């Protein structure tokens, strides 16, 4: 399941505070930042890493409908006290439309729709990342990756293995930095030296994980360390 990393916008500060409080009661919802000024949000937009936006429609300076057009690729949940905006909101491919005052169960349902939308989008739209490799700057389709291991000669480098059995050496990059660039919820670190693509996992126990490199070759097994076990199981089963 994709974790929601959201930005909240509502020009009414009491309503924004209430929305923040509701979000704290929901699991797997991380509020990156909250704004009661949409123009300030626009100034900060390039500095923010988020996938979902709860967006009030009636705001001074720029309304939510106009602002949403600048948030391509983000799951948009509109909110307003006025039902007449609903049709226009859905014309902008909003994942949901909330009426104020906010209600916890209704907000949770909206975030569920956002997770479904983001999952579908990740499957339909391959995510490419650019990494420094032994071949130079390489543009890599993350959906082609099977697993990644620490390089034998230099632990700062990471060896990326692909579905077709080919490999590439990513230079001087940490697993944390790599996972930050990869699609959320699709890769998992299972021990200090290994990251696997969840789509490549074909067998697992509490002790090891088996990944298929190529349909014509035997699967490869990796140790599943205790400190990463709970997170791996959660990602795989959600």
From TrEMBL:
TM segment ranges = none
Q: Which UniProt keywords apply?
A: DNA-binding, Phosphoprotein
Q: Which PROSITE patterns match?
A: RESPONSE_REGULATORY
- The chain residues annotated with the modification 4-aspartylphosphate are 56
Q: Where is the Response regulatory domain?
A: 5-115
InterPro entries (alphabetical): CheY-like_superfamily, LytTR_DNA-bd_dom, Sig_transdc_resp-reg_receiver, WalR-like
Pfam families reported for this sequence: Response_reg (PF00072)
Provide the protein name: Response regulator
């Amino acid at each position: 399941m994709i974790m929601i990393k959201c930005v909240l916008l509502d020009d009414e500060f009491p309503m924004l505070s209430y929305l923040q409080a509701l979000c704290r009661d929901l699991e797997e919802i991380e509020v990156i930042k909250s704004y009661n000024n949409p123009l300030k949000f626009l100034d900060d937009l390039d500095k923010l890493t988020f996938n979902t936006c709860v967006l009030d429609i009636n705001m001074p300076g720029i309304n939510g409908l106009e602002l949403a057009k600048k948030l391509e690729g983000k799951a948009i949940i509109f909110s307003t006290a006025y039902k007449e905006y609903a049709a226009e909101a859905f014309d902008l491919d909003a994942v949901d439309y909330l009426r104020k005052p906010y209600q916890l169960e209704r907000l949770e349902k909206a975030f569920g729709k956002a997770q479904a939308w983001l999952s579908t989008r990740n499957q339909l739209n391959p995510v490419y990342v650019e990494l420094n490799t032994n071949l130079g700057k390489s543009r890599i389709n993350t959906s082609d990756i099977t697993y990644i291991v620490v390089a034998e000669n230099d632990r700062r480098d990471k060896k990326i293995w692909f579905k077709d059995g080919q490999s590439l050496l990513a230079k001087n990059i940490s697993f944390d930095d790599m996972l930050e660039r990869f699609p959320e919820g699709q890769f998992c670190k299972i021990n200090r030296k290994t990251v696997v693509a969840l789509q490549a996992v074909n067998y697992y126990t509490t002790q090891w994980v088996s990944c298929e490199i190529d349909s014509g070759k035997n699967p490869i097994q990796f140790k599943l360390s205790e400190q990463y076990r709970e997170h791996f199981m959660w990602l795989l089963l959600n």
